[in-house]
Design brief:
Strand order of the largest sheet: 1-3-2
Shape: globular
Helix content: 40-55%
Number of strands: 3
Distance between the termini: 47 Å
Strand content: 5-15%
Radius of gyration: 17 Å
Number of domains: 1
Length: 168
């Protein structure tokens, strides 16, 4: 007989509507690490925001569609089953979550942040080793027949990184 894992219990003051669609765990050792403490307060808030956002249904769906479009535009299409594995929707019990996420303008607005604010603090998180850019328009620039960048409307795909742990 297999043991069924229970979901962590959240207190009612910790969430607004749906406790299990919009939470993350933040550990004391992360908060106490010199690397995290060296971030500005705004960058710390941004990191916690993207940790929470990356686990939302909206983020997972957007990440899936964005990666599918990127791979198609670069000519490196991958099967849907592999893409589902990449974004963490396949075998979810074993690979809960995904290191990949996108934060499009619509989601930024829902969180009450501006594009320039997000850009500045996501850049700090990349520089500090908490995130890496997986794919973005400047890295995969393709000029179409009309002279426009094919990726103008696709958000940057970020990936959570462990590099901050080895930073000194």
């Amino acid at each position: 007989m297999s043991k069924k894992k229970s979901k962590p219990i959240l207190k009612e003051w910790q969430y607004y509507k749906n406790a299990f669609d919009n939470y993350t765990m933040v550990t004391a050792d992360l908060l106490q690490s010199k690397q995290f403490q060296s971030l500005t307060p705004a960058a710390k808030n941004m990191y916690i925001l993207v940790l929470i956002h990356a686990n939302t249904k909206a983020s997972i769906e957007c990440t899936y569609c964005t990666l599918k479009d990127y791979f198609k535009l670069t000519g490196k299409e991958i099967p849907d089953i592999d893409l589902a594995e990449l974004v963490g929707t396949r075998n979810r019990k074993e690979t809960f979550g995904s290191p990949y996420f996108v934060l499009p303008k619509k989601q930024m607005q829902a969180y009450g942040i501006t594009t320039s604010y997000a850009s500045k603090y996501l850049g700090q998180l990349v520089n500090a080793g908490f995130l890496t850019k997986f794919c973005f328009d400047k890295g995969h620039y393709t000029t179409a027949e009309n002279g426009h960048n094919d990726f103008d409307r696709l958000p940057t795909v970020y990936k959570f990184s462990n590099k901050w742990k080895s930073a000194r």
